[in-house]
C-alpha cells in the first residue's frame, strides 16, 4: 500500500492494519491526524510534562493495540492522554501554570482556569470533541459537564474582557 491508499481508511482500520502488518506508513498516517491537537491539548494542561506524556502515549500505541471497547480511536486517544496527564508525577495538575513566552491573552486566560474547566474547554473547543465524549473522559454526567463548560466560558470571557458591564443605574432623588 502506498501513502495515498491510507488516506481513505478510518482511524480504527488504520490501527488494525498497522498492528497486523507493522507498516509504519499506516501508523504515520494516524500520527499525522492527531499529533497537533494532542500536543496543543497537552501543553495547555501540563506544559512541563507534555513531551513525556505524548511519548508514552505514542510508544504504547506502537507496541500494542488499545482495547477500544466500542469507542472511536479518537476518543480513546484523549481518554488515555487525560489519564496520563492526571498521573504525571512532574507537577500538580490543579495548579495553574504559565506557559513560557505565551503572549497570547487567550492562552494566558486558559491557564488561569481551574483544571476541570480548562480541560473541558480544550477538549470541546480545541480538540472538537462533543460534550458527551468530554463528559465520558472526565467521568461526569453530561449535565455537570455542560455546567463546567458554561462556567469556564464565562470565567474565560471575564478574564479576557473584564467583568460584565452593568447598566447605568439612575437613582431617584426625592424632593
TrEMBL record:
InterPro entries: RNA_pol_sigma70_r4_t2, RNA_pol_sigma_r2, RNA_pol_sigma_r3/r4-like, WH-like_DNA-bd_sf. Residues 106-156 form the RNA polymerase sigma factor 70 region 4 type domain. This is RNA polymerase sigma factor. It comes from Microbulbifer halophilus.
